[in-house]
């Protein structure tokens, strides 16, 4: 397969990636034929995937706006993805021009495009690192320069833990990140479930096995356990459109069709 000019040299263009599939479902153009091919197969058996991604992205935007309202001005966004409409630094720096953001992703296309977008922005950086290696993120020179771990930080792990299999111990990882955050910090999380839309999500999981990022769906109880050590803010654990919607119409009659749980917690 031909490598487009904009593709970083170290990117795997033979196998679809979660970052580029997500970009494809959101209507972006930073994806390869291999991603589009798998994306079309997923959409054929799980047409809800367009809503899963769009509603997840809308949750992220509302969560960041909420966190800004709480006075948070530091964000660590792990599994940040390829920049698209409503990026975290855009929302946060609109609310507070001094807000600081560290984006982290292990997908080279995501990091390269974040770097491009952030050129000339002194308060936001992107690093290529893996959620499963907390020390490489928490101890990264750029993280330490950008974020003050003596003041509240919002950790965003939105739509990323479902790419972490049980064998990589997601709860232990969540605990490690929690321990690094000072009191008053927040955690925003969303995660695919099979509690609703079970058949479509099952088919999606089957197809994502052919990508670089196999998916593990988790139940409401498993999702809630990731907030151990945090106090959930209202409305608690809900489907993405139900989390502080801007209007009742945004929730619609079947919020469970988003297939993604969402919540925000505060570390006491
Ligand atoms: C579905 S996208 C979500 C993007 C963004 N957080 C959002 O919710 O709009 C998931 C992102 O997580 C990244 N990702 C998956 N596994 C990761 C890991 N182990 N470490 C860092 N990033 C990871 C993928 O590359 C992808 O960009």
From TrEMBL:
Gene3D superfamilies (alphabetical): Vaccinia Virus protein VP39 (3.40.50.150)
Source organism of the structure: Kutzneria kofuensis
InterPro entries associated with the record: SAM-dependent_MTases_sf, SAM_dep_MeTrfase_SAV2177_type
Domain of life, per lineage: Bacteria
Region (Disordered): 244-268
Name of the protein described by the UniProt record: S-adenosyl methyltransferase
